[in-house]
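Running low. Got one?
___
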Amino acid sequence: MASDGDDKVVILDLHVSMFAMRPKMALALKGVHYESKEEDLRNKSSLLLEMNPVHKKVPVLIHNGKPVCESLIILEYIDEVWKDKFPLLPSDPYKRAQARFWADFIDKKIYDCIRAWLFKTKDTKDIKEELVENLKVLERELGEEAYYGGERIGFLDLVLVSYYTWLLTFEKDVELIMDAEIPKLSEWGKRCMQNESVSTSLADPLKVYDFTLQMWERIGVA
């Protein structure tokens, strides 16, 4: 990626974090060079604690020494700062509001299902049913469009596709066949993965699966 003038951009990262994948995709799409610093959340760096003293979590975007926290806020910040390069949010205020609404839906409904599965706080069958139901809602919102951004990838695509590798891991562990149960969303995910800025910014599904197995072993979850 080409450097963007004198800007220094750093992302405090965790490679399997769906939230940390988002700014990496956005910066890649806009051609903005950045440095990624992997965090160990069990042994947080002094830099992370300094840059995000409130939540103490990733991702954090550090732009010329100034931190921006929370992935959706980071995406909007990136879009505003580098607004002339591959705009992510729609220009129409109503469409922007709708994109923010669905992003909030994803980070509540989809994340809650993935978290419940990850920590086994609910019956797996119930989690699967809830997850598929929510994904079908998102399928209907996609409609006949190629992307949520219309003809090309946009803000909402980045928000949802950050869960894609986690859904592949979920599919591996649970009796879920995305091609059969959510075919339209499955095809959308494959389309997104054809974009190099997306595919190179997302975590390898096998690494996500290995991370999940290691976490289950560490916390004693069968």
